[in-house]
Amino acid sequence: MNRKDLKLYLVTDRGLAGDRAIEEIVRESVEGGATMVQLREKDIDTREFIGLALRLKNLLEPYGVPLIINDRVDVALAAGADGVHIGQSDMPYSMARRLLGPDRIIGLSVENFEQIEEANALDVDYIGVSPVFATPTKTDTSEPFGLEGLRKAVRMSVHPTVAIGGMNERTAADVMACGTDGIAVVSAIVCASDPRQATRNLLKIMTL
What we know:
about 40% helix, single chain, alpha/beta, 10 helices, about 15% strand
């Protein structure tokens, strides 16, 4: 994995997409400059999940944008995805790595500094510092890191970092100033009337 792929990391959410297809939102965001896409699905059956993952994989390949599957190692393998993102209560990292092999991307969410230290002993490809700010799209997480906590997390981690939780046009510049490699965005793109332009606006703010 190139750590530059983490810069603007779109995480899908069909609940926020309304009547718009996830495929179209992803296409527009990638055309706007999104560098990685995570397919996050909690409420569909395995067959449907795999079908959607296959469609996104085919969509993203011409752009050279990696597809990451949230949690489901089986879906990632079935769809030929580039990797998975796992949380602290998901499949243990060692098992995920054994199943996926050495070449697939594995990202790991960390919710406190102790978990960052534990992640430092693993050969994960990146960590997701979560949440930086409180957000309605992630309600099952620990106390937010805040900007100071994010700075400390970036210093502590031996791995590339992506900031998760509350990433939008108001927060992106301050978050990037903390030294993280990128931001993971959900509602700021998925809920946007123009995902392509929303992505471009975020990238512009992140490079100020």
